Amino acid sequence: MQATRNPLPPGPKQHWLLGIGIQQVKNPLRLLMRGHQRHGDLVYFNLFEGPTLLVCHPEHAQHVLVENVRKYRPVGPESGNGGPLLGRGLFASRGDFWMRQRRMVQPAFHRPRMGPMVAGMVRGIERTAERWEPLARSGARVDLLTEMRQLVISTLGESIFSRDVYAQSEPLRGGIDLITRDMHGPRDSLVTTVLGLLRMLPARRRRFMAAIQGLNSALYALIAERRQAPDVGDDILGMLLGARDPQGEGMSDQQVRDELVSLFVGGHEATAVAATWCWYTLARNPEAEQRVRQELAEVLRGQPPSEATVQHLTYTRAVVEETLRLHPPAWRVVRQAREEDRLGDWTVAPGTLVVVSPYILHRHPSAWEQPEQFKPERFLAEQRERREQRQAYMPFGAGQRLCIGNHYTLLLITTALATLMQRHRVRLSSEGPVRAMSGSTYRPRDGLMATLQPVGSAS
Q1: ∠380-400-329 over CA atoms, to 5°?
Q2: Alpha carbons 292 and 415: distance in angstroms, whole number
Q3: Cα-flanking dihedrals φ and ψ of residue 47, to 5°?
Q4: β strands within 331-431, DSSP E
Q5: To the nearest whole percent, how much of the chain has pLDDT over 70?
Q6: Helix (H, G, I), strand (E, B), or coil: what is residue 342?
Q7: Cα→Cα distances 358→90, 316, 331, Å
Q8: Taking 70 as the threshold, does the pLDDT of residue 23 lie above it?
Q9: Are 296 and 305 in contact (CB under 8 A)?
Q10: Under the phi-then-psi rule, with left for phi > 0, alpha for psi from -120 to 50, and beta for the rest, what region is 446?
């Protein structure tokens, strides 16, 4: 009956002139959180992009992202082309082409493939550990977000190309660094919006395109080198080159390039942010940090993680998963209704944007006790099995568009913590809560400054 009287769910009042535009630009996540707190599990907003429905209950998220997925489409270019950077990789493509590419790329990330990657991960991570040695001795401050970005891109290089191409190729490194600064710089959302508009200026556009050209030249050279080799190899690049669709056709160089950008460039930022949040949560929860160190001592006995031992680091992995619950880098998922649908008592009109926020879902009281508390035990086997609502936890998305690298990300961060914590202690430079921002990812706005100490030194 309520839906008959008012076809729209409740939502915040609009300013007579500006609507809620200032709030949307300044802190979009806070806007969504306040909407949920004041108006419930379905909230209507009139945003810049048009009529928008915020979905806050796990069951509604399940409906939109899994059960009725055909009624909703990912928001993005209608052509399914992500422009000169992303091309038609998995991040941007749509429809039948996306399904073809997904099926060809997916085997590279099946769980049985993950274990053999641990050795390459450790090689990449140990370069960070070695770089930290003099910094720990000198007591110099480091930005953990910057450190994790370099660690993740180096380690991804080992997994994708069997070597650290980021360190070895200046054009590739320069392109990635400029693109990262442009897309994920330490600025608030208002400045991000303005600079996004300024990207249309000729000088800024030229720098961005030059970075993409440098990236392309390096990636196409790597593809050509591998195609000419007697064996394409068994790393991720080798699997992409060897993949075939049901008609027996492989990927063109352009298609391989687009997938490499999605995996290597597009995927590293969220992983680096997640790893940074792990250092933050451990530093703020010394009992959990001590329990991780105890597990590392018992399982690894001073040795680097391996395919055989990393699977036994159950508490360390639980720390990673609980961190992703409290601080999901992918803080929102946006869909657009293709046709009319129903959510609870409300009608979703065609064209309506639907926002699902993992940050809010991960705190929903129907699924989580003491949701603001850091409790890694939630992700140990017994408690995990008791959790009933399927989309109460979705740091990697859900349904068909579930992040293809979800298992890889969990393994990489677990391996990174296990490797680095055996040699170093991290102490935050500030004891207070970090200032976060909700831009392209949910991340520390100004990085995360810390000092390093060798394990065994006085704390």
Answers
A1: 55
A2: 12
A3: -95, 175
A4: 333-337, 341-343, 346-348, 353-356, 424-428
A5: 89
A6: strand
A7: 21, 22, 5
A8: no
A9: no
A10: alpha
Query: 73 or 203, which is more confident?
Result: 73
Count of other CB atoms within 10 angstroms of residue 181 = 12
Q: Which domains does the chain have, with CATH numbers?
A: 2-454 (1.10.630.10)
Residue 236 has pLDDT above 50, yes or no: yes
Q: Which helix (H) or strand (E) holds 276?
A: helix 268-284
- Report the number of secondary-structure helices (H) and strands (E) in the chain: 21, 12
Tell me: pLDDT of 328 over 90: yes
* Weakest-pLDDT range from 10-24, 162-176, 329-343: 10-24
Instruction: Quick: pLDDT tens for 246-290.
Output: 999 999 999 999 999 998 887 899 999 999 999 999 999 999 999
Q: How far is the C-alpha of 96 from the C-alpha of 65, rounded, in Å? A: 18
Query: What phi and psi, each to the nearest 5 degrees, are found at residue 98?
Result: -60, -45
Measure the CA–CA gap between 208 and 196, rounded to whole angstroms: 12
What Cα–Cα distance (Å) separates residue 446 from each residue in 140, 143, 186, 268, 425? 18, 9, 5, 18, 21
**The residue type at 279:** W
Known binding-site residue numbers for heme: 403
The tokens describing 409, both together, are 């990300």
Q: Which distant-in-sequence residues (6+ apart) come within 8 Å of 257 by Cβ? A: 87, 216, 219, 220, 223
* Cα 20 to Cα 386: distance, rounded to the nearest angstrom: 40
Cβ neighbours of residue 176 under 8 Å, at least 6 residues apart? 153, 166, 215, 265
Across the range 43-63, mean pLDDT stands at 91
Whole-angstrom Cα distance, residue 444 to residue 438? 9
pLDDT for the residue numbered 309: 97
Q: What are the structure tokens assigned to 118, written together?
A: 């641990």
State how far the alpha carbon of 269 is from the alpha carbons of 19, 53, 183, 229, 328, in Å. Answer: 32, 27, 10, 31, 12
Strand-pairing partners, residue 44, are 53
Distance CA 337, CA 64 (A): 9
Tell me the Ramachandran region of residue 77: left when phi exceeds 0, alpha when psi lies from -120 to 50, beta otherwise: beta
Closest CA to 155 of 198, 190, 119: 119
Annotated binding site: 403
DSSP-assigned states of every residue in 303-329: SPP-TTTGGG-HHHHHHHHHHHHHS-S
pLDDT at 7: 77
Query: C-alpha 303: how far from its chain's center?
Result: 29
Q: Strand 449-454's sheet: what is its strand order?
A: 141-143, 449-454, 424-428
Instruction: Give me the pLDDT at residue 16, please.
Output: 44
Amino acid 112: pLDDT: 84
Distance between start and end Cα atoms, the chain: 63
- Could you tell me the two tokens for 10? 């409740």
